[in-house]
Amino acid sequence: MVSPNAELAYDSKIEGTIVPTKLDDAINWIRTNSMWPMPMGLACCGIELMAVAASRFDIARFGAEVMRFSPRQADCMIVAGTVTYKMAPHVRRIYDQMAAPKWVIAMGACASTGGMYRSYATLQGVDRILPVDVYVSGCPPRPEALLDALMKLQSKVRTERSFKRLAG
Amino acid sequence: MTAPADVTAALQAKFAQLSLRPSSDHPAVNVPVGDAVTVLQYLRDEFAYDMLVDVTAIDWAEGASPRFTVVWHVLSTTTHAYVRVAADCASDVEPTAPSVTGLWAGANWHERETYDLLGIKFTGHPDLRRILMWDGYPYHPLRKDFPLAGIETELPDIEVAEETQAKVIAAPMMGGPFVASSGEMNLTEAEPRAKDESWSEKREKSE
């Protein structure tokens, strides 16, 4: 269950309908609780990604059920599967088309390091072409592990200096 | 129900240049590459070998002649019997073989894979192009002169290669990045560790 967010809790009888807060906190709260993934489901991890989106493990609890296949509308690219050298330039192009702020989760062994495919055809880790924020180990990772990664990404976003970045 | 010995006997009776191939599991025959489609069609139509299981090839060695042998595996789903048909390619530098996509549509991708990884061109194939590596890749990875780890090449897309500075690298198994230490058993050191860290807490992440 999601625990109540203490820093934004208020009593409308005392404070009225105005909530003073830091701009960073407000921006980060909005971003963490509506992290829309761009699923880059390339192989078996894509099936576990679908399982996370389904009812039993429910990524919708975290506000991330909106899997946008258009990179313009997504916040977080989840690279789920083996990235071959043939596919790598396309993954990078789609990442480039995402609007800032954007994050990357490398799901599974193949996306993190090339996994069991130590070969001429497989990119040895998607971090060779993308900046990755969270790596998830597993082949495939349990759906709970992907949710844990999403929570780690949320805690990373919660502590960002967002206003400073916006201001330029 | 035709026993395997009957099939090979019938094949030898019908095709003069067919010979038995030494095999430890299934009946196998050697044919001249020009007769391969006829033999396979005969097996499919007369003996009910209705499923093409695999199309692959063997690269013997760089100096051997013949260098490439194309191998077809067919299965009879009714009698549960396999037959292997093997044919040496005529040329060692530009090996070709006839395509069986006219007999089995499933041969399409098997032949593309054989072309990609061994360089054997299949005449009559509707769409012969690489399947695992990208279209302009200069090597054939399963040939004997290609090293197991790979050869360093540029990524197919120039813009992405410049932006990311990534390359197609050789990925050797021995020597890392995941290696176990030998010698004394300090367990922290002895466990396989990642030595190749392209991004870490200490080194900045690239954009």
What do you see in this structure?
The complex is a heterodimer of chains A (168) and B (207). With 168 residues, chain A is of the alpha/beta class. Chain A has a single domain (36-167), classed as Rossmann fold (3-Layer(aba) Sandwich). Helices cover 37% and strands 11% of the residues of chain A. Chain A has a four-stranded parallel β-sheet. Chain A is elongated and about 65 Å long. The relative contact order of chain A is 0.17. Chain B is α+β, with helices and mostly antiparallel strands. Chain B has two domains: 4-145, NADH:ubiquinone oxidoreductase Nqo5 subunit (Beta Polymerase, domain 2, 2-Layer Sandwich), CATH 3.30.460; 147-176, no CATH class. Chain B is built from five helices and eleven strands. The longest helix of chain B is centred in the middle third of the chain and has 12 residues, at 107-118.
Please sum up the structure shown.
The complex is a heterodimer of chains A (168) and B (207). By secondary structure, chain A is of the alpha/beta class. Chain A contains 7 helices and 4 strands, in the order H-H-E-H-E-H-E-H-E-H-H.
Tag the structure with descriptive keywords.
heterodimer, A: 168 residues, Rossmann fold, four-stranded parallel β-sheet, B: 207 residues, alpha+beta, 2 domains, five-stranded mixed β-sheet, two-stranded parallel ribbon, 23% strand
Topology overview:
The complex is a heterodimer of chains A (168) and B (207).
Chain A: H1 12-15, H2 23-32, E1 37-41, H3 44-53, E2 76-80, H4 88-97, E3 103-107, H5 108-113, E4 134-136, H6 143-158, H7 162-167
Chain B: H1 4-14, E1 19-20, E2 28-32, H2 36-46, E3 51-59, E4 68-76, E5 81-88, E6 96-98, H3 107-118, E7 121-123, E8 153-154, H4 158-164, E9 167-168, E10 178-179, H5 187-190, E11 193-194
- Proper CATH architecture of the largest domain in chain B: 2-Layer Sandwich
Quaternary assembly: heterodimer
Rounded average pLDDT of chain A:
90
Rg of chain B, Cα atoms, Å: 23 Å
Q: How much strand of chain A?
A: 5-15%
Structural class of chain A: alpha/beta
**Anisotropy-based shape of chain A:** elongated
Biggest sheet of chain B: strands, sense, closure? 5 strands, mixed
CATH architecture term of chain A: 3-Layer(aba) Sandwich
CATH topology grouping of the largest domain in chain B: Beta Polymerase, domain 2
CATH class placement of chain A? Alpha Beta
